[in-house]
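Deviation from plan, reported transparently: nicotinamide-adenine-dinucleotide complex.
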Amino acid sequence: MSILVTGGAGYIGSHTAVALIESGHDVVVIDNYSNSSPDVIARVEALTGATIPAYTADIADRQTVTRILKDHDCDTVMHFAGLKAVGDSVAQPLDYYRENVAGALSLFEAMQAAQVRRCVFSSSATVYGAPQFLPFTEDHPLAPASPYGWSKLMIEQILRDLAISDPDWRIAVLRYFNPCGAHPSGQIGENPIGRPNNLMPFIAQVAVGRRPHLDVMGDDYDTSDGTGVRDYIHVVDLARGHVAALDLIERETGWNAVNLGTGAGYSVMDMLRAFEKAVGHPIAHKIGPRRPGDVAAYWADTQTAEARLGWRAELGVERMCEDHWRWQQSLIASQAEPSHPVGGGL
Ligand code: NAD
Ligand code: WQD
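Because the crystal trials were delayed, the predicted structure below was used instead.
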């Protein structure tokens, strides 16, 4: 039996492919490479020693996905593929609903056609919206603040209804908090196309000299130092959480939502200082206005993950910054070699 990883060349999918293979699973990847490069698959193969059947395909291509599921005798889909920029989703909502929601519908139809009823889905803490209480438990009210967040919640709902319609479905909806860091080898990591939206890749690009300074977006929040607080989670821990989710859906049928975070909040200035320590020199920053739509602080309640997955995050902020920095440096080195293809998710 194999696991089909959609978006397996992307940031989180590639790290999860490594973790799955290291845990003895066979992995098949489909990716349309809209935000990544086939070179990532070669790197995952080199890291693991495995040969990965990888298809250039869109999740919306139902016939192709059905055929791949059948040809590889897949029993599970880990669904990472999709668009993820919150700001873009506000500007182009139809793209987000088509790519994420319609894409997922087509994928789930392919799964039904191939009689594959195990699914692990990449959801996001963004489904909670503004905190009514903290930490966010899985039963916190759901009120996304962007089309991206709504697309995640709509897919969660589709999966919930599928589980009601047919008790054979086994579904884990994983709500990620703020993934960062990279594989300790420095071979795979996040490489956003254009100006990074997220804090950690932005800090890394300033540290390496690609950008002049970090704009700290607001220092007048009701937090310890006035800057925004988030629950940053190392992507390697996140990847392990997916392996643990396989055991959950092996044990139980139905729909399960689980937060994947560390349970601890760090401010923008905390992360900047931690990155400076990893790099060994100061990183330029300027205090700017708040980013519209941002909330002051949120972090995960991790009790469900501990109880249901037997999983907890192990890697702290120091490792997140060290590994992110190692990756950022190797990326610069590889970009200096013109023959080396570099894509968005490499
Ligand atoms: P990513 O962009 O690096 O990876 C997504 C991959 O899917 C890319 O390789 C891309 O080429 C591929 N893809 C996109 N649309 C596709 C389609 N229609 N068909 C086939 N392949 C397609 O993003 P990521 O950070 O690895 O995120 C993975 C998932 O996790 C996404 O669903 C994202 O919404 C979710 N998520 C990410 C974060 C985060 O901060 N990175 C947080 C919460 C949830
Ligand atoms: C973190 C903190 C910013 C950039 C987003 C999505 C969420 C999830 C993870 C996908 C905030 C501050 C940021 C910068 C800054 N993704 N910041 N300067 O907004 O918590 O979450 O990514 O599902 O859905 O919304 O993450 O990294 O953008 O911001 O000061 O240049 O860093 O204000 O306090 P966010 P982020």
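The radius of gyration is 19 Å. We consider this an acceptable substitute for the interim report.
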